[in-house]
Specification:
Elements lengths: L1 E3 L5 E4 L6 E9 L4 E10 L3 E2 L7 E8 L3 E5 L2 E5 L5 E4 L5 E4 L4 E8 L4 E6 L5 E3 L6 E9 L2 E3 L2 E2 L5 E4 L3 E3 L4 E9 L1
Antiparallel strand pairs: 1-17, 2-3, 3-4, 4-11, 5-10, 6-9, 6-11, 7-8, 7-10, 12-19, 13-18, 14-17, 14-19, 15-16, 15-18
């Protein structure tokens, strides 16, 4: 397992120039990735960047949430409730009550399957599943990844194992090659 500390995240502008994202990890190149993990601070209402051909799972990790208006209707992104939608979907977001921080998994569904959950400890993943990569954003409590402590705000990536103590919480991503 590798631990990605917040100070090591790579900060870059959103594709549409409307804000900043903090990239944590990716598989693939900057222009063509299979998957990417990032955290974004949403400090204003406005459009989302488009990611044609990709799928997005967004999880609000701080703040009251977002209302995402799309041509097909409204998606409510509430705290710690992952929402999935096409990366090229036209989305205009409105913050419910102030600024929001969200965790994003953007992936090519033709190459990888992604599952995002928000477990609370006690919880354990043995890992070592062939073709699977785990990622875990620690939000609170004692978390061990491959025997190493994962501080709040950091992300562990690799094959496992992952152990959350009683009261620990975070966002778990399972990426499996298709």
């Amino acid at each position: 397992m590798r631990i990605h500390l917040p100070e090591d995240f790579v900060t870059m502008p959103w594709r549409n120039g409307g804000g900043l994202t903090h990239e944590i990890a990716r598989q693939g190149s900057a222009d063509s990735f299979v998957w990417r993990l990032s955290v974004a601070d949403v400090t204003a209402d406005g459009p989302f960047s488009a990611f044609p051909g990709l799928t997005r799972v967004l999880t609000v990790i701080a703040g009251a949430g977002l209302v995402l208006r799309t041509p097909g209707g409204v998606i409510e992104a509430r705290p710690l409730s992952p929402v999935r939608f096409p990366g090229d979907l036209a989305v205009h977001c409105r913050r419910i009550a102030g600024d929001v921080r969200d965790f994003n998994v953007i992936f090519d569904a033709r190459a990888v399957a992604a599952a995002v959950t928000v477990p609370a400890g006690p919880f354990e993943v043995e890992g070592r599943t062939p073709g699977q990569t785990l990622a875990f954003l620690a939000l609170r409590g004692r978390v061990l990844a491959g025997g190493m402590a994962v501080p709040a705000g950091a992300v562990a990536t690799g094959t496992g194992p992952l152990v959350l103590a009683e009261g620990a919480r975070g966002v778990l991503v399972r990426l499996r090659a298709i």
